[in-house]
Inverse folding.
């Protein structure tokens, strides 16, 4: 037995005190007799004898109560109850391959569910003094949380919310993140233990990489085994010169044997092609089909079941009638022209303000230092609109501006710190627009909006209040990025860009109807809708690396060793509670026993020989 | 309720002895009995006890010469015819007597549990003898000694006669509360002043009463025939005769509170038993010397099957 509070055992000193009290309190048994007359004649003088301790039940009860109390104060711990607390960081693989449903998983349907169960078990087993944490080993390693055993419930809840999506994570980055999470708090260093919950498909397919050093023990727990899988590894559409499009699909067999499947192509929900295919182990096959105009959605389905059904289906939202033609209206050649032409998939058509006529085929109109009398019925980008245009209210001009940090997620990732704007209009933000980018206020000079965006006359309109020609943007890498971010406020997104595990570029509506914010990892394949603009986008689980479920070589990890913890922590099986309960049970018994005569008092005086307190 | 009983201090009344009650069968049996009163006792003229007085009576016992004023109804005309002299027929008239029961209600009587409690037994004895007296037309008084003087029950009961008074008697006996010190001598002095004679029943354990019967001038010495007939019932608990003690004990006197440390071994218990026997014998001898009927009764004797036959054997009852 280990005593967690040995000073509490000082309570054992009460035992000799109780014995002493009983010894002192010991009296001869008082017996009431009718008269002492004859006893005085008969009584022999009592010889003084050494006083003996009366071994009564009351004494035993007193000693037992005091003993139990003293022991409970010492907080005894059963052998084996003490343990060295650890710092356990769970690295949970959230790659798409964890969604495989191969056999051999007890009590779980997917590898990820088995890993979740293991994580729950690890987190739930945390004892007082332990530290726990969870890092997702996904496309971007993320620390879900850390803390003591009290954080177990919240971490278990967070783990339950996770869904497998995306590519394999960077183990080194995850371990670095876990190491940071394992940093000691309160100056108490605990041995770190990294538990990697993953599947056999994690790792490199080739030779092992340079060993990674982990500052702690690394425990690999692999869920699932070798599994055959055939998958659609690519589905894309590209425009043809005749206005139509061409659908391209590639299918790969990652199994160890030949795969016999049927590939179906659906256009707007109708099956238009059905290809029977037989792929040898490790083989790939690709097809392309012409798609007529007007088709909005193309799908490919691979029949037959395998371990990863998610990659047997892929969709592509076709641009259809939406034009990517951009009409740039500018009196002078502008750096913006180059930035627009640098954007993939854009066809830039130039015109001057004098020759401007709305281009019906254009999907976007860009006006530089010019605003037509009537804005076209299409998304419009206005750069440095002249004073009096009515779009914005100009109150002055400012020079030598720096760009402030943007809050909008589309601009937040841009590094605009080195950008200097020589001159810009000071404008009041109109009601129809919101400020996406502003200048940094300094020296008592307030900031002014630089990029405004909103919907005016039913069309998205974005305004740059500055002319890029009056800045150093033209020579900066940030310029095309800023143009791209601005285009994202005006044009629908490219359909072929989103994969499972990717963060949502904007607020979206998932296939099941729930809204997700920008930056949320896409965990469910299917058709998503943009929240702030029209259009849909397909999210596919097309990733050859994740569809290949064959075991791979794990990254080599060198453990720096955690060392044994010198801190001994008490376990939850302390004995003071049962001891205290025993005391609480014994106390009434002792009281009843001490007052038993009161309960059993006869109606008349006791007979001779029965002890009684003298009156 | 249970908890309330635990914390409630029990009062004396709750500790009282079982109620004094005589069953119907015993009452019928007692109605056929009577106190064996001596002929020398001088009582009234309407009782059932025999008398030594020679009075004109229907029951013939002797003659005496007629004198002026005698009732002519008692003239023995047959003797006049033979002797030619007037003689009266004399008889032994039956008489009633005053029965006084002195009952010890001191603290020493409150000893023993249940039916073996001495005071309870003394109540039953008093009730039994009192009912016999009432049923025989005697005048009964009950005078407790000892007891708590501030309580009304310590006042004497009676005199009363007739069996209809038995309910009041039992109620009175029930009301006796033990306590205090036995003071029989004072009661006897009062009794001597108040009454001219009668049948005196003294029920006591005789503890703390050294001057009652023993000694040179005991309090009972004036109580003798022909004025008084005394019946001494010494009531003891069996364990007073043979105490069941073991080990070192501290004896506490129930009346005085005095303490005596004792090693209750075989020798001391044997010495005590001998002392008790000698004491009882001394009491019995003293009673015999003074013409007092003495009977030692222990509370383990069933009243109807043991005590009553014993009293009949001792000719206390006839």
């Amino acid at each position: 037995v280990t005593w967690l509070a040995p000073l509490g055992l000082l309570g054992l000193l009460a035992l000799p005190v109780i014995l002493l009290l009983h010894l002192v309190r010991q009296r001869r048994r008082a017996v009431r007799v009718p008269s002492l007359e004859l006893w005085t004649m008969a009584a022999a003088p009592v010889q003084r004898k050494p006083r003996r301790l009366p071994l009564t039940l009351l004494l035993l009860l007193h000693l037992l109560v005091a003993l139990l109390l003293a022991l409970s104060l010492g907080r005894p711990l059963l052998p084996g109850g003490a343990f060295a607390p650890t710092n356990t960081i769970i690295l949970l693989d959230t790659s798409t391959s964890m969604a495989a449903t191969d056999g051999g998983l007890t009590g779980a349907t997917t590898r990820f569910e088995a890993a979740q169960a293991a994580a729950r078990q690890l987190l739930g087993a945390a004892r007082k003094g332990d530290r726990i944490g969870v890092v997702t080993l996904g496309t971007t390693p993320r620390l879900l949380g850390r803390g003591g055993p009290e954080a177990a419930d919240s971490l278990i809840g967070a783990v339950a919310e996770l869904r497998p999506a995306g590519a394999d994570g960077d183990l080194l980055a995850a371990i670095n993140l876990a190491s940071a999470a394992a940093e000691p708090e309160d100056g108490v260093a605990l041995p770190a233990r990294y538990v990697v919950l993953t599947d056999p498909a994690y790792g490199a397919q080739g030779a092992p990489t340079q060993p990674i050093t982990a500052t702690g023990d690394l425990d690999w727990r692999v869920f699932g085994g070798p599994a055959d899988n055939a998958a659609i590894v690519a589905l894309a559409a590209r425009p043809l010169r005749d206005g139509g499009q061409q659908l391209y699909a590639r299918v790969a067999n990652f199994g160890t044997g030949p795969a016999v499947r049927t590939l179906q192509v659906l256009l707007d929900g109708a099956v238009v092609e059905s290809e029977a295919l037989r792929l040898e182990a490790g083989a790939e096959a690709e097809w392309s089909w012409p798609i007529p105009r007007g088709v909005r959605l193309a799908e490919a389905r691979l029949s037959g079941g395998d371990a990863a059904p998610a990659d047997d289906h892929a969709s592509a939202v076709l641009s259809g009638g939406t034009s990517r033609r951009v009409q740039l209206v500018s009196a002078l050649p502008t750096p913006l022209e180059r930035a627009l032409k640098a954007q993939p998939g854009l066809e830039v058509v130039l015109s001057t303000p004098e020759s401007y006529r709305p281009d019906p085929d254009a999907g976007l109109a860009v006006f530089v230092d010019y605003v037509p009398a009537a804005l076209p019925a299409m998304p419009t980008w206005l750069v440095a609109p002249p004073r009096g245009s009515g779009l914005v209210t100009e109150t002055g001009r400012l020079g030598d501006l720096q760009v402030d940090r943007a809050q909008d997620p589309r601009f937040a990732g841009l590094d605009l710190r080195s950008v200097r704007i020589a001159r810009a209009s000071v404008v009041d933000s109109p009601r129809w627009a919101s400020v996406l980018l502003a200048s940094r206020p300094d020296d008592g000079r307030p900031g002014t909006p630089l990029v405004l965006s909103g919907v005016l006359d039913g069309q998205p309109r974005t305004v740059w209040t500055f002319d890029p020609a009056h800045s150093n943007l033209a020579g900066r890498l940030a310029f095309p990025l800023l143009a791209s971010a601005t285009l994202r406020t005006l044009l629908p997104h490219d359909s072929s860009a989103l994969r499972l595990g990717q963060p949502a570029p904007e607020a979206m509506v998932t296939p099941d109807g729930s809204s997700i914010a920008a930056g949320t990892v896409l965990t469910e394949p299917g058709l998503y809708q943009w929240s702030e603009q029209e259009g849909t986008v397909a999210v596919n689980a097309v990733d050859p690396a994740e569809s290949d479920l064959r075991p791979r070589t794990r990254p080599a990890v060198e453990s720096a060793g955690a060392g044994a913890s010198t801190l001994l922590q008490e376990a939850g099986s302390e004995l003071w509670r049962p001891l205290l309960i025993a005391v609480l049970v014994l106390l009434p018994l002792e009281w009843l026993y001490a007052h038993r005569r009161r309960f059993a008092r006869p109606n008349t005086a006791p007979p001779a020989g029965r002890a009684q307190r003298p009156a | 309720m249970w908890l309330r009983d635990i914390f409630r201090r029990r009062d004396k009344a709750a500790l009282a002895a079982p109620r004094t009650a005589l069953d119907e069968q015993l009452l019928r049996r007692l109605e056929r009995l009577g106190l064996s009163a001596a002929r020398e006792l001088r009582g009234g003229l309407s009782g059932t006890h025999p008398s030594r007085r020679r009075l004109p009576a229907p029951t013939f016992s002797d003659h005496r010469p007629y004198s002026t004023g005698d009732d002519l109804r008692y003239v023995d005309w047959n003797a006049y015819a033979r002797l030619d002299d007037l003689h009266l027929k004399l008889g032994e008239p039956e008489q009633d007597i005053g029965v006084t029961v002195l009952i010890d209600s001191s603290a020493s009587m409150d000893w023993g549990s249940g039916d073996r409690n001495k005071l309870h037994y003394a109540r039953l004895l008093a009730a039994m003898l009192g009912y016999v007296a009432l049923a025989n037309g005697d005048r009964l008084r009950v005078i407790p000694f000892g007891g708590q003087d501030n309580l009304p029950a310590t006042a004497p009961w009676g005199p009363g006669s007739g069996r209809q008074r038995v309910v009041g008697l039992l109620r009175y006996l029930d009301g006796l509360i033990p306590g205090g010190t036995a003071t029989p001598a004072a009661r006897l002095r009062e009794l001597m002043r108040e009454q001219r004679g009668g049948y005196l029943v003294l029920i006591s354990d005789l503890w703390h009463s050294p001057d009652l019967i023993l000694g040179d001038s005991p309090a009972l010495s004036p109580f003798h025939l022909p004025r008084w007939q005394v019946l001494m019932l010494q009531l003891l608990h069996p364990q007073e005769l043979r105490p069941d003690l073991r080990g070192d004990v501290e004896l506490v006197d129930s009346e005085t509170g005095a303490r005596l440390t004792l090693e209750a071994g075989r020798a001391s218990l044997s010495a005590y038993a001998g002392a008790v026997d000698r004491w009882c014998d001394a009491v019995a001898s003293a009673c015999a010397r003074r013409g007092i009927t003495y009977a030692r009764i222990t509370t383990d004797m069933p009243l109807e099957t043991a005590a009553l036959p014993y009293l009949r054997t001792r000719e206390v009852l006839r």
Summary: Chain A touches chain B at residues 27-44, 46-47, 595, 598-599, 601-609, 612, 614-615 (CB under 8 Å).
